[in-house]
Amino acid sequence: MNNTLPRPVAQATGIVRRLLLICAVTVASLAMNAGAAELSGAGSTFVEPLLGRWINTWSQQSGTRVSYKASGSGAGIEQVKAGTVDFAMTDAPLSEDELTKNNLTQFPVVAGGIAIVVNFPGERRRLQLTGTLLAEIYLGRITQWNDPKLQELNPAMPLPAQPIIVLYRGDSSGTSFNITSYLTKVSPEWAQGVGTSKAPQWPTGRGIQGNETSGDTVIGTPYSIAYVEYGYALDHNMQIVGLRDAAGKTVSPTQSTISSAVDAADWANAPHFSVLLVGVQGNNAWPIAAVTWAVVSRTPRRMADGQGTLDFFRWVIRNGAALADAQGYTPMPERVVKLIEAAWAREMGR
């Protein structure tokens, strides 16, 4: 008896087998992808350039997909409160009451500087300001670049007879929180009239959405002034302003002066690491340094997500320093990293 199938039947059977094998592989692949870890975050535009590098590097190493929307610190906090993202990034710390009420915890991941930048066409000398004069500009008291107060501080730099175009962040921003905190410290008039806020009522100027857009607007707007993340200003060769202190010494933002501010802060005694670096007294410290915190739920939606989120941030604080340095940010020192990991063990058992 001949058990050999006719050639057409055999060919059809082989095709069916191959199709079944392809289907099986496809189903298995889909199942693996469906089961792969995926994390989501939102918030700070200040840290976005660095966070994107961290996410790309860690995702390649871990196989975990991470999405991040740079919507501003305020919007990110609202999303993590609502449970629609696994983490938020913010440049303004949450209060103890806010953390407790929403079952959240926060920890610092990196520091950076807020640079004051200007656009003087054809001029590469560095403008100098004091905190008081910066407040007067943002209060609308000084409106011309060649104002005598500014010219006196910059005698070797002929200032243009041009109106000052004031730019600020128009969204809810942790960067605005830090810059207004600084202005509150140096100017009683600012403290009484405007104060510290992520979304202050600016007395003058034009609002711009996001750190990068603010920087781009300055680059394209002659005789403007704004505040942007230091690494962004460095990458785009922007004209960065130096700040003169009460002793007559001018300090500029650098990774060294930002690191000095981080080192001078009292991290060990700050509940939930709620430390503002603006105005920190340290040797040669940039007075408008800022911290970016990660905010996560103490009881995540899915346990795997919570573990994955902390796995990501453990990698960030342990292995992300080189990328931070390369982008102009300042990593958390080892003593702070140990405090963060102890807080995780205490609050989340991880």
From TrEMBL:
Pfam families: PBP_like_2. The complex is composed of two ATP-binding proteins (PstB), two transmembrane proteins (PstC and PstA) and a solute-binding protein (PstS). Belongs to the PstS family. The gene is pstS. Keywords: Phosphate transport, Signal, Transport. Residues 194-213 are annotated as: Disordered. Part of the ABC transporter complex PstSACB involved in phosphate import. Residues 1-36 form the signal peptide. This is Phosphate-binding protein PstS. Residues 34-316 form the PBP domain.
